[in-house]
Specification:
Elements: E1 2-25, E2 35-44, E3 51-54, E4 60-66, E5 70-83, H1 97-104, H2 108-112, H3 122-133, H4 139-153, E6 155-156, H5 167-173, E7 175-176, H6 178-191, E8 196-203, E9 216-224, E10 228-233, E11 238-239, E12 244-250, E13 259-264, E14 269-278, E15 284-293, E16 300-301, H7 303-310
């Protein structure tokens, strides 16, 4: 059990005024048994009305619009979160694939999260699966081996991929960041018939040297028969315990984007994302990421630049 104070600011600056900005935000901690929200404050430039709703995946979302001309937009959250999951997981390492098929039967959500779109190099995925499945009757063991495979064979390199990078390209680069490793792992697990979902959030290990710490992060949840959803982080080769804070889940990053929307106007935009994680011992870990984007067409989508800068 741990308590974290998280301060997150997404700030857009435009070199000329834009109007009719309509945005969807998923910046609220996910409601689940593994974490408890003790406090949550949201502040948005010009204090627009925010319509709250729950999406298909159970994520808490907000929609707001700014019709007036503006050259800055700031979305700020301050939250205090207690993670309640034990650091000693009791994952079922004995349940097998036949048991998984029984639990998936007539469960439309699990069936949906098992489906995969074949990629160009799907044969490479099948080859990876054959390696992982050798003498591996346990679903949890397969998931753990997949995580280790990606961690050991793919380099963690910032700046060589974007949110539009495909799994084929990740296989070619043999490198990427957390969202790339999550997408690759999803492809492998779903090809094996294991329901799995993308998770966005924060990693808060108190400067322990983990990749992506102190910033927005991405990992995977796999469905383990006899246990349920278990988080696993291929960027760091660890099962998720009480150092990961969850914001949203979905099939992939498009379901979990912290901010996405449109605006009207031709302008260059500069995006800055600041994240601060405070720990119970008083230490604070801070990170800032900046992205400058060229002029965008009228009604330009801003989702891409958000993910480019925030998912580490």
């Amino acid at each position: 059990m741990a308590i974290f104070k998280i301060h997150h600011i997404t700030r857009y600056q435009y070199d000329s005024p834009v109007v009719d900005s309509v945005n969807e935000i998923k910046v609220f901690p996910y409601s689940c048994a593994e974490q408890e929200v003790l406090q949550m404050d949201l502040n948005i430039s010009f204090s627009p009305d925010v319509q709250l709703f729950e999406d298909y995946w159970g994520n808490r979302c907000g929609i707001f619009s700014l019709l007036i001309p503006h050259d800055t937009l700031s979305i700020e959250t301050r939250s205090i979160i207690r993670t309640t999951q034990s650091s000693q997981l009791k994952i079922d390492f004995h349940s097998d694939f036949p048991q998984l098929e029984v639990e998936k039967n007539n469960n439309l959500s699990l069936i949906e999260l098992s489906y995969f779109e074949p990629i160009k190099n799907q044969e490479r995925i099948h080859h990876i699966n054959n390696q992982l499945a050798e003498s591996t009757p346990s679903v949890a063991t397969f998931v753990e081996r997949c995580c280790e495979y990606i961690y050991k064979r793919f380099k963690y390199v910032k700046g060589i991929t974007t949110i539009e990078t495909t799994v084929d390209e990740i296989l070619e680069h043999k490198a990427g960041v957390c969202q790339d490793f999550a997408h690759l792992m999803l492809q492998v697990l779903r090809t094996a018939g294991i329901p799995s979902r993308y998770v966005s959030g924060y990693i808060c290990p108190n400067k322990s040297g983990m990749r992506g710490e102190g910033a927005t992060h991405a990992w995977v949840e796999a469905y383990i028969p006899g246990y349920g959803w278990a988080g696993i982080d291929p960027t760091n080769n660890v099962w998720v315990t009480n150092t990961h804070v969850k914001l949203a889940v979905g099939r992939d990053f498009t379901d979990c984007s912290p901010v996405k929307g449109t605006f009207r106007g031709n302008a260059k935009q500069h995006l800055s994302v600041y994240v601060s994680v405070g720990y119970e011992n008083g230490q604070v870990f801070e990170s800032t990421n900046d992205v400058t984007q060229d002029a965008l067409p009228s009604f330009a989508a801003v989702e891409a630049s958000v993910h480019l800068s925030t998912q580490q």
